[in-house]
Amino acid sequence: MGSLEPTAINSPPSPRLHAGQIAGFVSASLIGQVGDKGVRREISMIRVIAPTLLATIADRAMQMFGAMGVSPDTPLADLYTAGRVLRFANGPDEVHLQLSPGWR
Fold it and tell me: What is the rounded CA–CA span in Å between residue 36 and residue 39?
């Protein structure tokens, strides 16, 4: 049945989510050590990864909830919208990807 099998719901976090967490931890650690000017590349990666992950996870949750996922009874629609808005508010992904050559 694909990704909606009970084993998939209870499975460990996806590799993309784990990579996003590691990138966040590494960036925070480097900011503490060398300051924000020295980690521009890592910050650019986070600005691409975080909003994309938020929108992807919210979208998958909305799929699991069905019609209730887009209703005001759950925060999922608002989370999805926030993820999409963050992608524009942070600046275009292409600009951040240019600051991170070879990362794509």
Answer: 5
Cα 66 from Cα 68, distance rounded (Å): 5
Domain range summary for the chain, segments of one domain joined by +: 40-104
CB 51 within 8 A of CB 87: yes
> Which single residue is written with the structure tokens 């929108």?
55
> Measured at the alpha carbon of residue 39, what is the angle toward residues 49 and 94, in degrees to the nearest 5?
45
Distance from C-alpha of 36 to C-alpha of 74, rounded to nearest angstrom: 36
| Class of CATH domain 40-104 | mainly alpha
Model pTM above 0.85: no
Measured over the CA atoms of residue 72, residue 75, residue 77 and residue 78, the dihedral's sign is positive
Taking CB atoms within 8 Å and a gap of at least 24, the contacts of 42-46 are 44/96, 44/97, 44/99, 44/100, 45/96, 45/100, 45/103, 46/20
Chain segment 7-20, per-residue pLDDT in tens = 455 555 578 888 88
